[in-house]
Each structure stands twice: as C-alpha cells, then as structure tokens.
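agent> fetching stored inputs for the D-serine docking request
agent> found them:
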Amino acid sequence: MAHDPISDSVLDLIRSHDPDAAVILEKESDRQANTLELIASENHVSPAVMHAMGTCLTNKYAEGYPGARYYGGCEFHDRAEDLARDRAKKLFGCKFANVQPHSGAQANAAVFLALLSPGDTFASLELSDGGHLSHGLKVNMSGKWFKPVHYPLHYGEGDAQFEQIDYDAVERVCMEHKPKLLMCGYSAYPRVIDFARFRAIADKCGALLMGDIAHIAGLVATGVHPSPFPHCHVVTTTTHKTLRGPRGGLILTDDEDLAKKFDRAVFPGMQGGPLMHVILAKAIAFGEALKPEFKSYQKQVVANARALAKSLTERGYRITSGGTDNHLMLVDLRTRDADLTGADAEKWLESAGIICNKNGIPRDPRPPKVTSGLRLGTPALTTRGFREPEMVKVAEWIDRVLVGKGDQSVASQVRREIVELCNAFPLPGHSIAQSV
Ligand code: DSN
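agent> prediction call returned; pasting tokens
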C-alpha cells in the first residue's frame, strides 16, 4: 500500500537522519495500514491534522493564553489558539473553550482542581462498570485525593434497562452522599446518556454536573448523540477518538466564572507550556468536524456499530445491554464459549490483524487482566470507508479466529484476507497500491 506522500518524504528524511527511528516509524505505519483497528478510542486522522503536528509550532513556548502570554513571539500562536477555541465553541454550541489540556485525563484533573478541594465527594460510574480511571479509580489522583461514590448500572436481569445507567440509583446515591460534583460520560458504555435527567439529579442534590464526552464527542458535535449543553456545567473531552483530531483534551462550559477557574486550573495549575503544534492540529480537526460530511461519517460510525453488534449476536455472542446506540459495544464472549477470555481473544485476534482490547463486562467475575469481554468500536474502520457489508465480514473474521482458538493457520488465512481488504480501503491520504 502506498502511504500519503508527505509521510513518505518524512520517512525518507528520518531514514537519512536516524535509521533506527525510521525502522520503528515505517513498521508502525505499515501495521496501521494493514490491520483492522477496532479499539473504540482510536481513529485515523487526516493528512492535514497529522502533518500540522510535525510543524515549527512545536518550537515555541506560549505559557498563558492569547493576548496574555509569558513569552514574546506569540502572535501566530495566539491566532492558532483563537482559531481552535472559536471552532470548538461553534462545534459544541457553547460559550467558552480551553484547548490546552494535553489529554482527557489532564482536562478532568483540571476540572477537579478548579471545583473540588482534597477530600471532597464526587459521584461517578466505576471503571469496572464502564467509567474511566480519572473518574475515581483508587490508584488515580481522582480516587486518592478525593472521595468517589459510585452509582450502579441497572442489574435487574431480563429488564429492558439491564446493564444501562440506573437513573433512580444515581439519584439515591447522590441524595445519600450529597456530592459536590456529579460525573457522567464513560469509556465503555454503549447507550445514550440522558444529560437532562442527570442535571435534574444534580440540581436536586446540590452538585455541579460534569459530562466527560471523550468517547462520543464526534457524535455529539454532529447531533448524532444528544448534546450535554445546556445541561452540564462543564464538559470535558479528548480530541482524538470519534472527534478524529490530534491526541489531546478540551474543556467546555457556558459559565463565565467557571471558565475563568478552568483556565487558571489548566495553566498555571496543571500544565506549563501548551503544545501549540497540537493546538493548530485541533483547530484543523474542528474545522473538518464542522463540515457536513463529518455528520455523514458519524452516522455511518453508528450504523456500522449496529451492524457489527447484530452480526456478532447472530454468531452467538452476547452484546452487553442488548446492543449499542453509539460507536462501541462490549462483547460478552462466554455465550459463544464459556472458557473464552478477553485476554486470549485480544491476543489471538491481534495475530490475525484484528486490533481490539479486552474489557471487563459489567459485574465481570474475571480480573481486569483476563476479563470476559472485548470492547469493539467502529470509528477507525468507518474512517477508512467500511460500511455494513464490511462489518459483517469483520464479525465473520472475529468468529473464525476465536472459534479457531488461536490456531495459526486460521489466523494467517484471516490475516491475508484482511490485508487484501485493507488495500481496497486505504487510510486517509493513502492511495491504493498498483500491485499488491
Ligand atoms: N483509554 C481510553 C480508552 O481507551 O477508552 C480512555 O481514555
């Protein structure tokens, strides 16, 4: 497969400068081009986003904010950050944006720094139920310095809401513990989030409402998932998942006083110099997300997830909560084979060129390094042009490899078929090879 021409010339340049580094880059580039990326939090950026990150904006210190920097020479950095902020506000329909967080976890930490004092209580969904480590895991700063209380999923077996957010339980937990902050938004939750219901609960218990939309940001930006505004007091996100931008974080709000607190919490509270090359890439990605074709892409992401979930269900796998409304699903492997673990499945699938991650399912009896499930997402495959027929093919390959229990001849055959399909669906900016 031919790479995008700029990546090829960058590779040539690095090869002549540092062959050891070039080998790594070349191999990773080929890996991405020739495997199926099903990790729900990953995507393939456009060549413009990709190459904005390899520019001279990386050379500059720009501590502070546009018009109020601690270094000279920031004229064009101010313009880059203003462009990113303006586009972020337009994209999410809100009044204030901080585009400096280096990641989603940093954005969340900055919100904690701005709104909570050590020892304060906040409410969230536990990591093992689909939350995120920055939402109160014991070994994370959020769980060490603050006091998380977790609301459960709905566990009434046979109930239509099984394994979905139990809003009555959220209310019960919040009324009992009176958290200062109520968090919603998750890393492994396949259903629509009812932000209005969360706001009603937050108002009732006297909490501020925080929506971490890292996973669904692209869906939210295009109206394919309901917006957290005007319900959430603060919204955080990453920029590199469904939003298909560079790796990074973002904090959004409609409240001017809160916006000032978040700005101070990001810098100088949490971070020093912003990654200006990444901020320019964020601006470009937000520009792409404002275009109509981005909405068609997000709709296809969801249609593809539904097609994959349906096809896996037909092959005997249980999809937790009975399906998906967004870009991801959690697959309970035990209904296909009681002995199958997420750890084995991840390893076997990788050997066949299918990249995904083992993931605990709600109330998983197995430990996090083993698990009974896989988390699968469709943002990256949809970027390379896959539609429903290809998703059926993906389900068939997954099943063949798992039924083969890691048999190398099965994995090798599937891998050959996958490379062939990858060649027909090149990554953004790549071209179809003349001869494969
Ligand atoms: N680690 C990310 C994910 O894979 O969902 C969340 O930050």
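agent> quick read of the result: The first helix runs from residue 5 to 17.
agent> awaiting further instructions
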